[in-house]
Amino acid sequence: MPDNESTLPGIVENTPRLGLDDRFTFQCGKHMDCFTKCCQGVSILLTPYDVLKLKRGLGINSSEFLDQYTFVMQSKEKKIPAVFLKMSDDSQVCPFVSDKGCGVYTHRPWACRMYPLGMAEPKNPEQAAQRFYFLLKEDLCHGHDTGAGCTVREWIADQNIEPYDLNQISFRQLMGHPGWDNPELLTGEKLAMFYMAAYDLDRFRSFVFDTRFLEVFDVDEARVEALRTDDVELLEFGMDWLAFSLFGENKRMKLTKTAKPRRVPVTEVAAPAEAGL
Ligand code: SF4
Ligand code: SF4
């Protein structure tokens, strides 16, 4: 299951594009001689919502999940941290696979749900209509051109991908911001802020509730209550806070009238070891 970003240019040039109503023929399951071969030696990019679902499904907090199961790579130019699932050191196998299959099947990441489909779309979410799909054909996978056919739309419904797309919209909007063109944007503390609010949600929750954060920002009571327990709401809120903090956009973030906006340093909450932040 290759991550889209690293392999996209070549695939997009050489592979037929599929729309939602185009059909493809594929089957997968325990009866296949290649069963779980796709769960080793792969590079799986995790979205913030993937991290949220996996840490919750495993019953651990986000820092534990990130420390134990992921590694971080930063893009060369813009230093944006990307979180990947960490394969085992010796055999490069996914930590969740066994001979029975995926041990986190109901929480598996977007990339695993989509496979063998890949997706490409413009960075700007307003141009989402230009999204298209393509088939990832690898020698290790014997599921192509066998079994019953389905449309891309049917595959997306069958794999329950819609919530993963919906809960990814705010992150995609943030990542599509033209302000990222500044290569100096994510340095020092801003890098730590981004990593925490996007991926290390339980630490972000501590940051919101255990520092002066709520004295500085005017957040309505209903939202504050939701942030205490609702990870999806917290992720949305984190995207609002990053848009405000990184790009000065304050459509959904307000400073309190009375508080002097002293910056709350992210270092007030312990930094994640793995990310080297
Ligand atoms: S998360 Fe599940 S489906 Fe994805 S690579 Fe790991 S074992 Fe395979
Ligand atoms: S058919 Fe492809 S996706 Fe399914 S188990 Fe085999 S390698 Fe994995």
What about the largest sheet?
3 strands, antiparallel
Structural class category:
alpha+beta
The largest beta-sheet arranges its strands as 2-4-3
Q: Extract low-pLDDT stretches.
A: 1-7, 268-277
Shape: globular
Distance between the termini: 28 Å
Q: What is the helix tally?
A: 12
Query: How many structural domains does the protein architecture include?
Result: 2
The strand count comes to: 9
Please write the string of helix (H) and strand (E) elements. Answer: HEEHHEEEEHEEEHHHHHHHH
Mean pLDDT across every amino acid position: 88
Q: How much beta, percentage-wise?
A: 5-15%
Helix content: 25-40%
How many whole angstroms does the radius of gyration measure? 20 Å
Bound molecules: iron/sulfur cluster
Structure report:
- This protein has 2 domains: 9-175, no CATH class; 186-272, no CATH class.
- The two termini are 28 Å apart.
- A hairpin with a 2-residue loop joins strand 5 (97-98) and strand 6 (101-102).
- Helix 2 packs across helix 3 (62-69), helix 9 (201-210) packs across helix 12 and helix 11 crosses helix 12 (231-247).
- The chain has 12 helices and 9 strands.
- The longest helix has 17 residues, at 231-247.
- The strands form 4 sheets. The chain has a 3-stranded antiparallel beta sheet. It has a two-stranded antiparallel ribbon with strand order 1-9.
- The model is unreliable at 1-7 and 268-277 (pLDDT under 50).
- The protein has helices at residues 4-14, 48-58, 62-69, 110-114, 152-158, 162-166, 169-175, 189-198, 201-210, 213-216, 221-229, 231-247; strands at 23-26, 45-46, 70-74, 81-85, 97-98, 101-102, 117-120, 132-135, 144-151.
- The radius of gyration is 20 Å and the shape is globular.
- It is of the alpha+beta class and 277 residues long.
- The structure holds iron/sulfur cluster (SF4) (2 copies).
- Residues 1, 39, 44, 94, 96-97, 102, 104, 108-109, 112 line the site of one iron/sulfur cluster.
